[in-house]
Design a protein that fits this description.
Elements (H helix, E strand, L loop, with lengths): L17 H4 L2 H15 L24 E2 L14 H5 L5 E7 L12 E9 L8 H5 L5 E2 L15 E2 L1 H4 L7
Antiparallel strand pairs: 1-4, 2-3, 3-5
Length: 165
C-alpha cells in the first residue's frame, strides 16, 4: 500500500554495541538526572507550617461585610444568587423589626444566607453583582472536611465580626 503523500522516511537502525546492549550508558544518564534533581531546592511547601503567598486577585472564602457602624450590609436583594452560575447561593429575606436598627442597614435583610462551597466555582460574579458591596471573596482557602453538610456555610461563618468587639 502506498502512502497518500508519497513521502517516505527511511529509518536506519544501526546495531547496538556490547556497551549499549548492557544499558550502562542509559543507567548512568538516569542516575545523573536523579542526582541533579536531588540537590535542587524542593518546589513543594509544608502546608500546615508554611503558608503560601497568594496574588492580589486570589478569590478565597466568601465573607459578608458590615458597614462602619457594625450593621450588616446585605439587603437580601438576591442579585448574587441570580448571578451565580453554579446556583450555590440561597437566601431568605425578612423584614427588620423595631429595635434591630443597629443590626441591619436597610428595612429588608437576609434572615438566612447560605453558600454551598461544594458547588461554588469562585468566579466572583456574586461579588460584582452586589449593589451594596456586601459580599467579598477575600477569605482564606476553604478548609477540608469529611461531611457534605459541613460545606454549606451560613451567616454564622460568613458574616465578619463587628468592628467594636
Amino acid at each position: 500500500m502506498e502512502s497518500l503523500s508519497n513521502k517516505k522516511k527511511v529509518l536506519e537502525v544501526k546495531p547496538l554495541n556490547i556497551w549499549e546492549r548492557a544499558y550502562l550508558p542509559a543507567i548512568f544518564k538516569g542516575l545523573a538526572i536523579t542526582m541533579k534533581h536531588f540537590f535542587k531546592k524542593p518546589v513543594t511547601i509544608k502546608y500546615p507550617e508554611q503558608k503560601r503567598e497568594f496574588s492580589e486577585n486570589f478569590r478565597g472564602m466568601h465573607s459578608l461585610k458590615r458597614d462602619e457602624n457594625g450593621r450588616e450590609r446585605c439587603t437580601a436583594c438576591g442579585l448574587c444568587a441570580l448571578s451565580c452560575p453554579a446556583e450555590a447561593i440561597t437566601m431568605t429575606a425578612a423584614e427588620r423589626q423595631k429595635g434591630e436598627e443597629n443590626l441591619y442597614r436597610e428595612e429588608k435583610y437576609a434572615a438566612v444566607y447560605e453558600i454551598n462551597m461544594l458547588r461554588c466555582i469562585f468566579c466572583g460574579l456574586c461579588e460584582e453583582a452586589c449593589p451594596k458591596e456586601a459580599i467579598y471573596l477575600d477569605g482564606d482557602i476553604v478548609p477540608a472536611d469529611y461531611l457534605r453538610k459541613d460545606f454549606i456555610y451560613g451567616k454564622d461563618k460568613l458574616v465578619e465580626a463587628p468592628l467594636n468587639q
